[in-house]
Design brief:
Layout (H helix, E strand, L loop, with lengths): L1 H42 L19 H12 L3 E2 L2 E2 L7 E7 L18 E11 L8 E2 L10 E2 L1 E8 L5 E2 L7 E4 H7 E2 L4 E2 L23 E5 L8 E4 L9 H10 L5 E2 L14 E3 L8 H8 L9 E7 L7 E3 L2 E11 L5 E6 L11 E2 L12 E2 L2
Parallel strand pairs: 9-16, 12-13
Antiparallel strand pairs: 1-2, 3-4, 4-7, 5-6, 7-21, 8-14, 8-20, 9-13, 10-11, 12-19, 15-17, 16-18, 18-19
Length: 368
């Protein structure tokens, strides 16, 4: 009987040790995971030139600054009420396939169909000589176990948006035809002027070596490769006050990239409504918030479509970032702009997913 009781006590102690220690280890692992997530999200934005990272003159991807920022961010977190330390050897960088067709961090960007973006991978350890070594256990000590190594890993990327949430889009649609004239799709950046001569169909003198400056006007006054048109996204409301509100506040509902190009037979979030009319007074509203005004719409994200036929729902093919210099109403009726891929300015709010590279970018997000 005594032997049976003793055996039962050992089993009970074993189960107690398992329950208490495993529970504590899960808590610690969650702390480390939170630290790894936060550090990866802090490092990823610095892969690109950003004022907040102090690397505006760096060449992207700026691996060194991203790694340094991630290491620093680890120390903003704690585990077991003790500040964690980040280690350079635990912060890796490389390319991450955001489609998931190629697994793991790669030193070189995998070829198509992979869609690879620069990424930061952070591992936070409580093991060996890092952060005090393994995690102390309690009842498991009776079995000779004093510490258990625990770690957590996170990967963060910045991708090209496939979706843009509320307030992220400006109510002007442009055609892919027009975009292709001024965008270097091979290198993912604006085409730059090689002379001061305006491009065909334009009158603005150019600055050599800088992105092309161009006017976009209503589709009623220009061909498809020089035109833009007011868009009201998922609603057919047709009045100036409503569009003016969209200029100030952006799209009310999420929008997404879709296929095939052209008119949407059944409207959904991948479609945007092309407004009829020129709505001349709206150009003054755009000028007021442009680079020539208070700069609240100096950089904006626009939906790109195949066609600007008024009173149709058109498929959104991509989201493009543009810099708005100014706008002119009256007899002019145009917006002056340039394509942009400025990492400091072209982040689409509330965006995610994966889309074509038209200059816009998502906020940093966890990929693993």
């Amino acid at each position: 009987m005594a032997v049976t009781v003793a055996g039962a006590m050992v089993m009970l102690l074993g189960f107690a040790a398992l329950a208490i220690d495993v529970g504590y280890l899960y808590i610690v692992r969650n702390e480390l995971q939170n630290a790894a997530d936060a550090a990866a999200l802090a490092g990823a934005p610095c892969l690109y030139q950003r004022a907040e990272c102090g690397n505006l003159k760096a060449t992207a991807p700026d691996w060194g600054t991203a790694q340094q920022r991630a290491v620093q961010a680890v120390s903003l977190n704690q585990s077991s009420h003790t500040t964690l330390l980040g280690y350079t050897t635990d912060v890796a960088y490389g390319y991450w396939d955001v489609t998931g067709s190629v697994a793991g961090l790669q030193a070189v960007a995998p070829p198509s169909p992979a869609v690879s973006m620069p990424a930061v991978q952070v591992t936070v350890n409580r093991a060996g000589a890092e952060n005090g070594g393994g995690v102390p256990v309690f009842l498991a000590r009776i079995f000779g176990v004093k510490t258990v190594p625990v770690s957590a890993t996170a990967v963060a990327v910045i991708s090209r948006p496939g979706t843009v949430g509320p307030s992220g889009l400006f109510p002007v649609a442009i055609t892919k035809c027009m975009f292709d004239q001024y965008w270097d799709s091979v290198n993912g950046k604006p085409k730059t002027a090689t002379s001061t001569t305006p491009p065909p169909g334009q009158t603005v003198p150019q600055v050599v070596g800088q992105p092309y400056i161009f006017w976009v006007t209503s589709s009623y006054h220009a061909g498809p490769c020089e035109a833009s048109q007011w868009t009201t996204f998922d609603t057919t409301v047709n009045n100036v006050p409503y569009v003016r509100n969209l200029i100030a506040n952006g799209n009310p509902d999420p929008a997404a990239v879709g296929q095939p190009a052209g008119t949407c037979p059944n409207p959904d979030p991948t479609c945007t409504y092309i407004q009829p009319g020129t709505k001349t007074t709206l150009y003054d509203s755009v000028n007021a918030c442009s680079a020539a005004g208070d700069k609240t719409c100096e950089y904006v994200i626009l939906p790109v479509v195949q066609d600007l036929t008024p009173k149709t729902m058109q498929r959104i093919l991509a989201f493009a970032c543009v810099h708005i210099d100014n706008a002119v109403g009256g007899s002019g009726k145009y917006i002056q702009m340039e394509m942009s891929n400025n990492p400091d300015k072209c982040q689409a709010p509330n965006s995610g997913g994966v889309g074509p590279n038209y200059g816009a970018a998502t906020p940093a997000r966890l990929a693993a």
